[in-house]
Write a structure and sequence with these properties.
homodimer, three-stranded antiparallel beta sheet, DNA-binding
DNA sequence: TATTGTTATACTCTATAACTATA
DNA sequence: TATAGTTATAGAGTATAACAATA
């Protein structure tokens, strides 16, 4: 124990938390996520809608279950997301000839355009928030983050 | 557009999301956070209670506002956290001679012991989840994460 | 006037369980 | 039996606004 009466040192002396990976991940994520929302504006896509739209644009006819699996969230959680994207006119729930259970998600022209615009904004904002890291450092960071995930999947 | 009818490629072909810093941060954080909860068990401390307790143990007599500021959350959000820690018997809300508005947070013996145990468990679990990264890589990752935050504060 | 702790409230994200229609 | 999508529901986590006590 370092103090018994006063402890204003929380600002000067580094806390134990600082060397926790989880804590640092969370704090960094909150910064980047804040940038994300700022980049996409008041009624812009949420991170999860953006992620889903990204997959739909890149893999047209992907099913809701596939999107959920890829994003690592539950099937049920995807309903609201797809509802949102459909309401915005960014995709349609289409049908698949062979299997009438499946909803194939197809991006609209609007959806593809909106994604392109949003993607550029998000990337630019991320670049700005990371501009005090060198290109090399940014690449290393992403590589290491992927490596954490690599073991799980 | 790469496909018009079928797209099972979401698993083979890397998605656009993969090079977003935010996306990779979130996925990595979810893995580490899952490990955290597994390490602390069913009725264990939540990440935020653990973080708060960590500060209280390291900086006895820290105020709620100081904890909130350090963790980057709202003052109001801390009430429930401190309630939780108090109910567990890990700290007490004490008073400060000079200023009767402030609650100085003081860890109990139980609190210090619980933190030591939890801290070890969390660190071990993090180490295990990161064991496929070299020591050098782990250190680099934490350093880069801190660097993102360094600009904001 | 400003600050500390507090309450009330609401919103987002997410998970679980159960249902339906298909397979 | 199993799977895709859906609904209902509940629980974290967090933010905002307003309040009382105190500075």
């Amino acid at each position: 124990m370092k103090h018994t009466l006063q402890s204003a040192d929380a600002e000067t002396e580094p806390s134990d938390l600082e060397d926790h990976v989880g804590y640092n991940l969370k704090r960094a994520y909150l910064i980047i996520q804040g940038g994300f929302r700022a980049a996409l504006g008041e009624d812009g896509l949420s991170p999860r809608s953006y992620s889903a739209l990204s997959l739909v644009v890149q893999y047209p006819n992907i099913s809701q279950s596939e999107v959920a699996r890829t994003l690592g969230i539950e099937r049920s959680g995807l309903v609201a997301i797809v509802d949102d994207l459909e309401k915005r006119g960014y995709l349609i729930r289409s049908t698949v000839p062979g299997d009438r259970r499946v909803h194939a998600l197809v991006p609209t022209k609007d959806g593809m355009h909106a994604y392109a615009t949003a993607s550029t904004a998000v990337r630019n904002r991320e670049k700005r928030l990371m501009s005090h890291l060198s290109e090399q450092e940014q690449q290393t960071l992403v590589d290491l983050l992927k490596k954490i995930r690599a073991r799980e999947e």
